[in-house]
Every structure is written in C-alpha cells, then in structure tokens.
Design goal:
The complex is a heterodimer. Chain A is mostly helical. Chain A contains twelve helices and four strands; from the N terminus they run H-E-H-E-H-E-H-H-E-H-H-H-H-H-H-H. In chain B, 48% of the residues are buried. The chains are: A mainly alpha, B alpha/beta. At the A-B interface, helix 1 of A face strand 10 of B.
C-alpha cells in the first residue's frame, strides 16, 4: 500500500479507470467490525441474525458479524424457495463451516405458495419476488427475538439504484455493508477469506429461475459502480460524466433509478399536523443515552 | 521544565451526562496517577456529539452544580472538558471549559459551527464570537474546538496573541477509506496539526474521541505536535487511550529563536488589508 504523501496524481472521471473504487480493506474491516459490535451493544442486544443466501453480500456480512460478536452469537438463516439452487445451499453451508456460525435452513415455499394459491389472479413475478423477500425478512426478525439484531446486507449499489424490496431484503436493524459498492464489497470479500467461487459467481436474487442482477438491470455492476462513484461520492453532474466519455444512456438511466427509488431509502412520510412531529422536528439521535 | 499533560481519548455516551461524569472522574484519576498537570477531554465530552434535539435537554450554565464534580476534581490537576453551555440569554453553545484549582478559569465557545455534509451544528447551537487566550501552568493557551481548527485564522489569532499551546478538542468522524492512504480524515488532521505547530511555532494538542454515534465512527488518533514539527505522542485509531506527553516551554523558545516567524509577523498589514476589504476605518500609523 502506498502511503498518502507518496501518492500522486488526481482522480479523473474515466469510464476505463476503476481504480478510484479501490478501498483499504484492512481499515474497512476494522471500522465495520467495530460498527457491528458497538451498535449491537447500543441496541442492548447480543446476537446478530443474517439471511445467508450463498451470495457475496450476505457472506461478507456474516463473516464480519462473526469477527465482531463471536461465532456463537451469529445465526445464519438459509431460506430457500423451490426455485433456489443447490449451489446456493452449498455455498451457505460452506460459509457456516468456514466461519463457524450456526446455519439454519428454513424453507419458505409452503407459505409463499399457499398465499399465491389463495389469490384468484395471475400474480406477476415481481410481486412473487417481493413476497419472498418479505417472507424471508419476517423470519429473520422472528428469529432475532429476544436478543438479536437483524443485519442488513444491501450494498451501496443496490441502495442507490433502489434495486431491492422495501421492507424485504432492504429491512434491517443495522447495515454494515451499505456504504460499499458491489465491486468494493467483492474486494473486501476476497481479503477476509470468502471463497472465490462465491465472490466470482454472477449475483442473483434467485427470485425466479435464471434471474441474474446484471441481466435484469441491463448493465454490469462494474459500470454502474463507477458511474455512481463519480456521481454520488464525487458529486459530478450527469452532463459532466457524459463529457468525460461515460455512456450517455447508462448515466441517464442510473441517475433516473437513483431519483425514482429514493423513497425506498428514507423513512415513510408522516403528515405534519402538530407543533412537534416524529421525523420532522422531533429529532433525537437513535443512540439516545445508549451505552 | 516540561509539563506533563494527558489526553483522554474516550467514548462519551450520547445524552447521558451523569454516566459521562462518572467516566470523566475515572479518566481524571488515571491522569492524576500518571502525574499529569492537565487532562484534556474531547469536544462535548460530557454530553456526546450528535445530540440533535437532546442539546437543549443536556445544556447547563457554566456555573451549574452539575459541573461541580469537575471543578472539585480540578483542585490538584487542571481539566479541560466539553459541555453544552446555556448562556445567560438562553443560547446554546458547544463549549470547552478549563478548570483549575477548583474553579472554572476559562470557557471557549465554538465559533465555526459546520452545517454541511454529516454536520448540523448550526441548527442546534449558536456560534461563539471570540478567540481569547488564557494562562495556566503550561503557558498561554487558546482553544480551537474541532471545526475552529480547520479555519486557518483561528490558530493564527491565538499565536499572534501570544499562545504557545493550541488545544484542539474534537469529535471528528472518520471517513474516506480509499486505498493508498490513511483514513481520509486522519490524513487531513495530521497535516493541519503539523503545519500549524511548525509555522506558528506552537504546541498543537489534538484531542479526538472514539466510539460510534448513530453509525458514525469517531476515529481517535489524538496527538501532541511540537513547534519543531515532531509528533511528541500519538494515540491509536478507534480505541480508547490515555495519551501522555510532555510540553516543553524551552523548546518553544529554541524554535522561535531559530525560526522567528511570529516575532516578524506584520499584524498591522493583516489588519489593514482586512479592514480595507470590509470598508472599516483603520488609522494608518507608519
């Protein structure tokens, strides 16, 4: 690693240069384990519950939680639907073995299918996917009782694009990985010993067969992350990015996704009526008098 | 004769003044046991930093009885600690008090209240309106609370007024994790500390806290930088630590003999320049 004074050169927005996304993995690992330990304690909880899908985001979250709280205080939940792959199950089990946390398998097929059968209508696959995501989260919250916190696994790319189910996979008590873009998360994953097969496989929510994130989005995480980094972290306007050679259609589409889905990232709006209103002008920190 | 000081790089609880008071008494005892003449706590050490609406709940006058334990503890060691001061006209200020010999001897109110990025000081607090030096056993001193230090004019005004020590109690959130460097904030702060110390020939005592508030990590890394630019002592990042270091008035004298930048400083030109730009009258006397 080069030291700060030795570093030269300026960061230029360049669609062919992903280097600005690189992170100091040792520092990030330290900051995130401290975050999990302290914010779990401040919530007066001891354990963490993580939905372990077999993918890289939940793998990193579970591994960091294990380091922060001890393997005996981490519960991983693998919650397959009938379309979920054996590969995912295998990866979830491999993570549990490698990092030592308990993994429980809780299938969601029965309850999801019972609900879908009860609807006398054709249910769009997006609705099915959302139902599955919320079913999983309800199980994570149930299993967190009475002394566990549900850890979020939505990365910064998903959060900014709004590529997730509100109150489904996006729901959590605290989220250690939400300020890391997908490509940064992969880099961190390799440095903390997540198996390569998990890090390199195509990301998928497995909400229907053959679904992949990048197939559904129509662009790669590598491309999206670089656009988002310059747009969000470095505050460049879309027009400036296009001038620097970024694809105009991609930039415009990403900017529109960020804007349109902003509602998913904020607390629900409350109608202002009284002199003092939750969320508007009753502004106390969440860690109010916390240890 | 060198003066030993202690930096309490601690993690105050948010809004829990009583608990923080107990915590202060423990750190003060430890500093006393180390033979320190002064123990310095970070910004808002008695209340926590991201207070939001809690600011009004935890505020008190500088002579409020709830601060009496600090005054009491200062009979045999000086104490610099942070609190929310409610002024006589009921304005809230981010304040740093200096207690010595059982009494409050100086209060600095944070002048620059950042209200950008992750900061919202200006919504909850009123600004201080002065930079005043004061004397204690270590020498003439000025206090720059966090953002105050980022404004070049603050340490300059203190040094011009004769300060040889700038105390900088902070609540600095760690951010910037790009490869190829230190934590972004740490890099900026160290550059500032070393630059001010060397070019104003003063001791910079940077006192940062640790711990988390609402997901934001304070990074620690407190340090004492001498007027010759050497780092006298530096605390770990992110962990609690009682950092001990010496301040040597002789070193200030030696550095200023070698490098008389402050002696040669032309305050009259600075003043004339600023007065002219602001359209203020200024008697030219040359």
């Amino acid at each position: 690693m080069t030291s700060a004074p030795a570093r030269t050169g300026v960061i230029r927005p360049d669609p062919k240069d992903p280097s600005p996304l690189r992170i100091d993995e040792v520092l990030v690992r330290k900051m995130l384990t401290l975050f999990i330990r302290e914010e779990t304690a401040k919530a007066r909880l001891q354990r963490a519950v993580v939905g372990v899908s077999g993918g890289v985001d939940s793998a990193v979250t579970a591994a960091l939680a294990t380091e922060a709280l001890g393997a005996e205080n981490v519960l991983g939940l693998f919650t397959p639907y009938r379309t979920s792959s054996d590969e995912s199950r295998g990866h979830a089990r491999e993570l549990s073995r490698k990092f030592g946390f308990t993994l429980e398998e809780v299938p969601i097929t029965e309850q999801v299918d019972a609900y879908l059968r009860s609807r006398n209508e054709k249910v769009d696959r997006v609705r099915i996917g959302n139902k599955m995501a919320r079913e999983r989260k309800s199980i994570e919250y149930d299993r967190s009782w009475p002394d566990g916190i549900v850890l979020g696994t939505s990365n910064k790319t998903e959060l900014l694009l709004g590529y997730g189910t509100q109150f489904g996979d996006m729901a959590c008590g605290i989220n250690p990985v939400g300020d890391l873009y997908k490509t940064q998360l992969r880099e961190l994953a390799l440095s903390i010993g997540i198996p390569e097969a998990i890090v390199r496989k195509p990301p998928t929510a497995e909400l229907w067969e053959g679904q992949t994130d990048e197939g559904e989005l129509g662009f790669t995480y590598a491309d999206a992350d670089l656009v988002l980094y310059h747009m969000v972290d470095r505050r460049l306007r879309p027009a400036e990015l296009i001038e620097h050679g970024f694809d105009a259609k991609l930039v415009t589409r990403i900017r529109e996704m960020v804007r349109r889905n902003h509602y998913k990232r904020v607390m629900p709006l409350i109608a202002k009526l009284s002199l003092r209103t939750v969320g508007h002008d009753f502004l106390y920190p969440r860690d109010w008098e916390a240890d | 004769m060198s003066i030993r000081i202690a930096i309490a790089q601690c993690a105050p609880a948010l809004g829990a003044v009583k608990r923080n008071m107990d915590m202060h008494e423990k750190w003060i005892s430890r500093a006393r046991a180390e033979g320190a003449r002064l123990v310095i706590f970070p910004e808002l050490s008695l209340t926590g930093y991201y207070l939001k609406d809690l600011a009004a709940d935890v505020a008190c006058a500088a002579d409020d009885p709830q601060l009496a334990p600090i005054a009491e503890a200062s009979r045999d060691i000086d104490i610099s600690a942070g609190f929310v001061e409610r002024s006589a006209d009921a304005k809230l200020h981010i304040a740093q008090g200096h207690w010595s010999g059982g009494k409050l001897v100086h209060v600095h109110r944070k002048v620059y209240l950042p209200t950008y990025g992750i900061f919202d000081d200006g919504r909850y607090f009123g600004p201080g309106d002065r930079f005043e030096t004061y004397r204690w056993a270590g020498g003439t001193t000025g206090v720059a609370i966090c953002e105050d230090l980022w404004h070049v004019s603050t340490p300059y005004l203190y040094a011009a007024a004769g300060a040889t020590i700038v105390l900088a109690p902070s609540a600095s959130p760690g951010r910037g994790v790009a490869e190829g460097g230190d934590l972004g904030t740490a890099e900026s702060c160290r550059l500032m500390d070393r630059f001010y110390a060397s070019y104003l020939t003063v001791y910079v005592v940077y006192v940062n806290r640790v711990g988390h508030e609402d997901g934001i990590a304070f990074w620690g890394g407190s340090e004492i930088v001498a007027p010759d630019g050497t780092v006298v002592a530096r605390a770990a990042e992110f962990d609690e630590e009682l950092l001990i270091g010496e301040i040597d008035p002789e070193l200030v004298a030696r550095e200023r003999a070698r490098n008389p930048l402050m002696r040669d400083e032309r305050e009259d030109i600075v003043l004339r320049n600023i007065a002219g730009r602001l359209g203020l009258p200024f008697d030219r006397r040359d």
